[in-house]
Amino acid sequence: MSSSRYPAPGSAPTRDAADPRVVGLADSVIAQLHHAARCIRDGDAANAQSTLMRLIADTREHPEALRLFGLLQLRQRRASEAVATLRRALTQWPDDALLRSDLASALAASGDLDGALASWRKATELDASAAMPWFNLGRQLQLRGDSVAAADALTRATKLMPDFLPARVLLGDALVHLGRFDEATASYRAALAVMPSCGDAWRGLGNIKTRALDEADRARMRAVLDANDTADSDRIAIGFALGKAEEDVGHYAEALHALTIANTLQRRLAPWREAPLRDYVDQALAATIQLPKPPNPDFGREVIFIVGLPRSGSTLLEQMLSAHPEIEGASELPDLGEVLVAESNRRGQPWPHWIGKATAQDWLRLGRDYLKRTARWRQHKPRHTDKLPENWKFAGVLRAMLPGAHIIDMRRDPLETAWSCYKQQFYQLPHFACDFADLAAYLHHCERALDTWRGRDPTHIHVQQYEALVADPETELRRLLTALGLAFSPACLDYARSTRSVRTASAAQVREPLRADTARAPRYGALLDPLRAELARHTRP
To answer: What is residue 99's three-state secondary structure?
Structure first.
């Protein structure tokens, strides 16, 4: 196909067209392209498709018509087809930054994240003045855990588009993960200067847990919450931030009130139910009683999973372990669940129903897939942590899939854990943390499963109590590292000096010296008696 059929944007005079992407096309064709773009925007897929297919044929595959068709396919979740369409357009306009950026979005949607990053990088090279490729590049880098490069890309995006709130907020998040809290605060406040009701910016400020919001901030949040036009999503995020701010100044009744309103609204969006989790745990426990013997019992020893409930101290433990010369802290990785979901899709049977049908070779294949997906975390150190809390749901099959891996069951005082979860906004919905009864039920089933699986594999599943770790870190770390087959390293006690990216809500706390006075629930006294009652109802005899 000729690369000169249509002039690329910027390669020809534009006096005869307001849009350099359609230079040389008849006015009627340009009008149809604009019509198709509006149809895509408005969700009229049928009209958009018929118009674009006709235009692609009539113009002999004009790159802009192909680009719009690729975007339509992407909207329709036909990512692989969108990739092919956009690559057809690039054969004519290989140096078009917008096409490269749109291709990157399609590649990301198809699962080719490395290809997406390369395409966004190429787009920024072709047009360094375009903000969106920088933003998308930064967002993808942040998802991959490369917060340094993400912050650089997002800084470029905010300079090019100062009022683009998603870039401001995401830059703040990246800077928090890097421990650059003053810069992060400035980025969040820049977003609030544009939009005072930006819930994500207030969420970001509230998540810098070592820094208190002042009375002026509390007044601003209350004013936004009192306004009738505040969106529910912003109202929820601001409610959590206000709850944290009220607690910081000892206003415990006011903090509970703000948090209750935010949680009630969030739960209303998607109520969590105990029955599916209870049934899942019953099925998973039964299905994992007998598993095939692995051909190599040491396979997967590179991996250290840290599981349990959120807000139980797992980020602190990972920060300590990642200071060890042989352990890389990878934070919360989705790979284990994604490998098992992909296998469920391949088998056409939901997890965990196919566990009993999997052979030793099946588990070995799945384990290899996980290790391949996470190999980048072992480029500098031989072992890595994976601290996604909800991986506890899959701990029962690891003795077949990754039999050499170790699982650390991180536990904290139940009241403190539950209350800390209630104060934290989670974005995965439905979520158990929006209601006291749900919290108690989730904690019960999590511990029930892990206790059973530890009984079956005591060599590889270890309980670590948060309070013991804080009270005597050296003794606890020595014990735990011995169980992991590693020598003690004094560097683990100097964890606060680490400059690694910490991508959780505890990013600020784990950069502070160790403190023993982290409990907050007792300060609320009788206000939390309803939560205590729910926890007691699930206490195992």
So the answer is: helix
* Number of residues that this document lists for the chain: 541
DSSP E strand stretches across 458-531:
461-465
Nearest to 505 by CA among 162, 224, 237, 249: 237
The whole-number average pLDDT for the span 329-355 is 95
Determine the Cα–Cα distance for residues 421 and 417; give it in Å rounded to an integer. Answer: 6
pLDDT in tens, 302-341: 999 999 999 999 999 999 999 999 999 998 999 999 999 9
All structural domains of the chain, each given as residue ranges with its CATH number in brackets, are 1-127 (1.25.40.10), 274-537 (3.40.50.300)
pLDDT grade for 16, boundaries at 50, 70 and 90: very low
Q: What is the 3-state secondary structure (H, E, C) of 216-264?
A: HHHHHHHHHHHCCCCCHHHHHHHHHHHHHHHHHCCCHHHHHHHHHHHHH
Contacts for 539 with CB less than 8 Å, ≥ 6 apart: none
CA distance 129 to 408: 47
Name the helix (H) or strand (E) containing 114: helix 113-126
Which tokens is 489 given?
């390293």
Beta-carbon contacts of 333 under 8 Å, excluding residues fewer than 6 positions away, are 374, 377, 386, 388
> What is the DSSP secondary structure assignment for residue 64, as one 8-state letter?
H
Pair of tokens at residue 238: 């601001």
Tokens 């820049």 locate to 190
Please give the full DSSP string across 148-186, using - where no structure is assigned.
HHHHHHHHHHHHHSTT-HHHHHHHHHHHHHTT-HHHHHH
Distance CA 154, CA 139 (A): 8
Supply the pTM of this predicted model.
Answer: 0.83
Residue 387 corresponds to which amino acid? K
* Burial of residue 473, with CB atoms counted within 10 A of its CB: 0-12 exposed, 13-18 middle, 19 or more buried: middle
